[in-house]
From TrEMBL, chain A:
The lineage of its organism: Bacteria, Pseudomonadati, Bacteroidota, Bacteroidia, Marinilabiliales. The keyword Signal applies. The keyword Signal applies. Residues 1-20 form the signal peptide. This is VCBS repeat-containing protein. Keywords: Signal.
């Protein structure tokens, strides 16, 4: 005991010393090649949730290569799926990856060297190519990777490969042919995922939250024979009906999936944070980094949902089950239940985070199995550390999967960040012995070398002993956006001059994931009247262009340029035309804002309007908006 | 230089000169086709109108007015319009934001551009028309 106290003391001193180390003394780390994971964890016995009709799941078994380890690196996501890639009649294992950038989110193809009943892989893989011979990849700059879904979206009898994306929230498709998958194209959607505005309500198809983190899956929701888009992410768990045709899909407005009470589906309990008077609230589903798979899991003939999240917070389960029920207003879903739990009573039946799930018949026995991609942190020499792997990431305050865990901490410019990480690795209370009971160099190397790495598991399904019967509700309530997600409109002012009425309003969005304040100028125009856009051409030709000047109080600053309506004739005399023209300026609020007594922004708008026959003199509006 | 080339060059030169003369003639003709605006003050225009027994035609415009530019370019330059307006009116273009323009615009209550004011030689308003007018409308107004 006395000895261990000395170790603790030495470790603490070492930790402090590390943070006092000069930049030039920093230890660099480069991952070694061909390393294999050490200390792979065994998963304690799981208990299936009692879901009549649902397959009984086996203990998770890691899918391993007979020669090499099956694993993803980069940012640690692993998106597994089965597809007969080489058309030899056997389903191969595909694993989608995530890498920041225009290329790098590739698709590992592990050819099945066994049979459909007993698949075998060597662990050696090639990255998937399209029919043009290019490596299949999609552009992701953050937080989500290539999650392949194989469905026939183009109605030609051959599966296409489809995936979602982070931002912009596009849907990418590689059309399947007899010879492979064509180069990527974008699937049409209602609205424009590239045009969004911070600070609008999440149900507004022009808002950032509506589009951000578009994870995708497909099933026929309304029974019209077309694949609909099931999408999760910042805007919650939603469905976008296919408003296109059997051969040319187009996904419509994303409607929230609801429970019979009219509530949005939730992956995690909400928690309102009140820090420095900021009333923040999380995404409507509780966790924006979410995925849903629509599947009739219990075989009752009604679609259910399997959903996953970051699995990084206390109270989250690796896989959530939402039972589909019939109501007079269509299919609704009962709120989440864990698909399985740990027999030992732990709230973490799986190690790691960022669960990815794909329903497949892995052993070809006619019963659904689960393929699971799991990200687990490993450190030096690909060593998994129990204390890191089994605790939710939130416990340590570590970056989530999809972020650069450990990467870049050798950069001298990030010395302070390294020190923060050291404290996190040691635990806030310094009670993580694996970290500090070792030499300082090892501690620092752990930080530099730490990575999220993705592993694939299978949980075999066994036919259920009991059948499920359809559950019907006599009533279903409509969705009402909870107050915490409603924008707070602080002030409106309206000025009419001739054919133009200008209304000013300021809104605050309580969502922490978007900038909290927007000033919106809405021009209501009588038919035929237009405004001149602020372009070089218009200024040079003496037109009075539409301008906005803002004088924010201390702590408030402009976030980017003002968003304008679409211009007509942008190359020539550019105009804004239409019955309603909305201009929106987003503001950032710094800490100083909360200390300012007179919270306000001065607004000056100048415009001049014409129709095809005449022009009216320029108008200047001055307003002060209080918050 | 051979004779052939010399003859060719001379022919070419003559052709260029001929085209030039034709162009000059045409440009003079085009200039003369539309309304010839008086380049003087409002008072001078009044005096000229009185002297020549004509009325005043005033086009109030601004530099930022798109329809004003269109009307000036498309309709004031027409021969049919010029023939009538040059005969009947002393025509004046008034920039409502420059020089004496604001004062005259105020006198005639101009708040929309373009505004066309027809007045007698003393400056008394006869009729005022707001907005761009096409050829037919301009000819009708001149009656």
């Amino acid at each position: 005991m006395r000895y261990s106290k000395w170790i603790v003391l030495a470790g603490s001193i070492a930790l402090l010393s590390a943070c006092a180390t000069k930049n030039s003394d920093r230890i660099s780390y480069k991952p070694a090649k061909n390393m294999k994971t050490k200390n792979m964890l065994s998963i304690p016995e799981i208990v299936n949730e009692n879901i009549p009709g649902a397959p009984l799941l086996s203990q998770p078994i890691q899918i391993q290569g007979e020669i090499d380890e099956i694993m993803t690196e980069k940012h640690g996501y692993a998106y597994p799926a089965l597809y007969d890639w080489n058309r030899d009649g056997k389903k191969d294992l595909l694993i989608g990856e995530f890498e920041t950038g225009e290329t790098g989110s590739f698709l590992q193809v592990h050819l099945n060297e066994g049979s459909n009943e007993i698949p075998k892989y060597s662990g050696k893989f090639e990255y998937a190519l399209d029919t043009a011979g290019d490596t299949i990849t999609a552009y992701y700059w953050c937080c989500i990777g290539l999650h392949p879904r194989f469905i026939d979206l183009t109605g030609d009898g051959i599966d296409d490969m489809v995936t979602g994306s982070y931002n912009p929230g596009i849907i990418s498709m590689w059309e399947g042919t007899a010879n492979g998958f064509k180069p990527v194209v974008e699937v049409e959607q209602e609205g424009d995922p590239r045009k969004y505005i911070n600070g609008l309500e999440l149900t507004d198809s022009k808002s950032l939250n509506y589009w951000n983190y578009t994870s995708a899956h497909f099933a026929d929701f309304n029974g019209d024979g077309l694949y609909d888009l099931f999408v999760a992410g910042s805007g919650g768990l939603r469905v976008a009906l296919n408003v296109g045709t059997k051969t040319k899909p187009k996904f419509g407005y994303r409607e929230l999936l609801l429970d019979p009470e009219g509530n949005a589906l939730v992956l995690m309990d909400q928690e309102v944070i009140d820090e420095h008077n900021k009333k923040y609230v999380g995404p409507i589903s509780g966790d924006m980094k979410s995925y849903i798979e629509p599947i009739d899991w219990d075989g009752d003939g009604v679609l259910d949902l399997l959903a996953t999240s970051t699995y990084s917070y206390k109270g989250q389960n690796p896989i959530e089950f939402f039972r589909g029920v019939k109501t007079p207003k269509g299919i609704r879903f009962e709120q989440r239940r864990p698909l399985f739990t740990a027999k030992n009573g732990s709230d973490r039946p799986f190690p790691g985070s960022a669960t990815q799930v794909k329903v497949e018949d892995y052993n070809n026995d006619g019963v659904n199995d689960l393929l699971i991609g799991m990200s687990i942190i490993s450190v030096q020499d690909y060593r998994i550390v129990d204390s890191l792997a089994w605790k939710p990431l939130d416990h340590f305050g570590l970056p989530r999967v999809g972020k650069d865990l450990g990467h870049g901490y050798g950069d001298p410019n990030r010395h302070e960040e390294t020190c923060r990480m050291q404290k996190r690795f040691a635990g806030e209370d310094g009670k993580i012995p694996w970290f500090y009971q070792r030499p300082l160099d090892d501690q620092v190397r752990d930080i530099y070398s730490s990575r999220h790495r993705g592993y694939v598991y299978v949980m075999y399904g066994e036919k259920a002993e009991s059948n499920a019967t359809i559950k019907e509700y006599k009533e279903a309530k409509d969705f009402v956006l909870p107050d915490v997600y409603k924008l707070k409109t602080n002030q409106t002012a309206s000025t009419t001059s001739g054919p133009v009425t200008v209304s000013l309003e300021a809104t605050k969005d309580p969502n922490p994931y978007s900038t909290p304040m927007v000033i919106r100028a809405k021009f209501t125009m009588k038919a035929g009247w237009y405004l001149y856009a602020d372009t070089k051409h218009n200024r040079e030709n003496d037109y009075v262009v539409t301008t906005f000047e803002f004088e924010p109080c201390e702590g408030v600053s402009l976030a980017g340029d003002i968003a304008t309506p679409e211009m007509f004739n942008p190359e020539g005399t550019a105009k804004f035309e239409g019955e309603e023209l909305v201009f929106e300026q987003v503001f950032k609020m710094g800490r100083a804002f909360y200390g300012v007594k007179d919270k306000k922004v001065g607004v000056k708008i100048t415009y001049q309007t014409c129709n095809q026959d005449m022009c009216l003199p320029p108008v200047t509006i001055r307003e002060t908006i209080q918050f | 230089m051979s004779n052939k080339i010399k003859i060719f060059t001379m022919k070419k030169l003559k052709m260029v000169l001929f085209v030039g003369v034709v162009m000059m003639f045409l440009s003079t003709t085009v200039k003369a086709q539309g309304i010839e605006f008086f380049h003087g003050t409002y008072a001078e225009a009044q005096a000229k109108a009185k002297k020549e027994g004509k009325q005043l035609f005033m086009d109030f415009y601004t530099s930022w007015c798109g329809p004003c530019k269109v009307m000036a370019k498309k309709y004031f330059t027409l021969e049919s319009v010029g023939k009538v307006y040059n005969k009947k009116f002393i025509c004046l273009k008034i920039d409502a934001e420059k020089g004496e323009g604001p004062e005259i615009a105020k006198k005639y209550g101009v708040k929309v551009y373009p505004t066309l004011v027809f007045a007698d030689s003393s400056g008394k308003e006869v009729k005022t028309i707001k907005g761009m007018q096409n050829e037919q409308q301009l000819l009708e107004l001149a009656k």
